[in-house]
Every structure is written in structure tokens, then in C-alpha cells.
Amino acid sequence: MKDFNTYIFDLDGTLLNTLNDLAASTNHALRMSGMPERTVEQVRMFVGNGVHKLIERAVPEGTNREQIEAVYDEFRKYYMLHGLDSTNPYDGVPEMLAELKQRGKKMAIVSNKFYAATQELAHHFFGGIIDVAIGERDTIRKKPAPDTVFEALRMLEVEHEGAVYVGDSDVDILTALNAGLPCISVLWGFRDRDFLLANGATTLVETPLDIITQ
Description:
The protein is an alpha/beta fold. It folds into two domains: 6-17 and 88-213, HAD superfamily/HAD-like (Rossmann fold, 3-Layer(aba) Sandwich), CATH 3.40.50; 19-82, DNA polymerase, domain 1. It has nine helices and eight strands. It has helices spanning 19-32, 40-46, 51-58, 65-82, 93-102, 115-126, 147-156, 170-179, 193-198; strands spanning 6-9, 16-17, 88-89, 106-114, 132-136, 163-167, 183-186, 204-205. The strands form two sheets. The chain has a six-stranded parallel sheet with strand order 5-4-1-6-7-8, sandwiched between helices. It has a two-stranded antiparallel sheet with strand order 2-3. Strand 6 (163-167), helix 8 (170-179) and strand 7 form a beta-alpha-beta unit. This is phosphoglycolate phosphatase.
């Protein structure tokens, strides 16, 4: 067991089960544009690369850029109002974070979700536990680029040594690799074991409390 002192967490699919709210917002935006809706399972596979990519994957093939932007704008407006309708931490996540906090570990969230939503969700569910939360914005490259991880480490005033990245997807595995950090891949999120192993996962955990023992 390695004694990590800093934990950098992905948000969607890692700390929070946001899938139903993401699917509802996607389908609302598609309906408003007269486009066919998507299943929750389809949306699950669309997420991970930011909202723009989610919408690009959700709209019908051949949709032009202007229409994509209109769907994106509608998604953003709706999600900011309904992002907490059914979203909650996964079972065991609050207890895991509280234990890390008690042990004096430093923690941050880095997400490809747009910045305002990342801040709102982090404050609502993890205020007082995780103080650094970084989302997508124009001035910094999104994951799998390592920029948000580097910014989180800088804000926490820690070095790479002793830090670990925790996520649920292939994007997270690449992000950790690009940042030079070990990666813990969780099995309760948006991607399954076989997918994660096929995309380079080396450390898998089945429950949030297992993170503490890695």
C-alpha cells in the first residue's frame, strides 16, 4: 500500500452519479431542437470528454455546427437548473472523503463538466471537505490534457510526488498518464471493468473505501 498524501478526483461517475440528470438534460435539449432522444445507456457512453462532445455525439449524424451549438446552449441552461434533480454521491463516497480528510490528505476535483456546474456540485455535496474544484473553461485545456491536474496541484500547494488520480473512464486513465500520476480506476462509474482494462487501467477498486487502502 502506497501512502498517498494528495487525491485528485474526477467528478461524474467517480464521486457523483450524475447520469440521470445528464440524460434528462440531453434529451430536453434534443427535444427542443426537434431531434430524437437518446437512452440513458447511450448517454452513459457519450460522457467523459465535456459537454460539447456529449452533444456532438448525441445529435443525429450530419447535424451542422450552428444546430449543435443551439442544442449545447439549451443543455447548459436546463442543466444549470436541473443538475441536482437526481444527482447524489455514490454509496460510500462521503465516508471515504471524510476518512481522507481526517487523515490530513489533500483533495481536489478536476472535471470536464463546465466550470459553473462543477463549482456548484462540489460546493453542494463536498463543501468543507474538498475546497479545490476545477471545471472546463476556455483558458485551460480539458482532460485528457494534464492542465487541470497541474492547476489543482498548484492550488493545493503540493508536488506531484505522493499524488494519485482517481477516475472512472479511459479519459481519466489518459489524464493521469499525461500528468505523470498513478491512476486508481473505480468500478461503480460510467465504464465497466473490461473497458477500463482494455484502455490501460492497472489499479481497480470496487468500493469507495477501497481507495483508502491503495
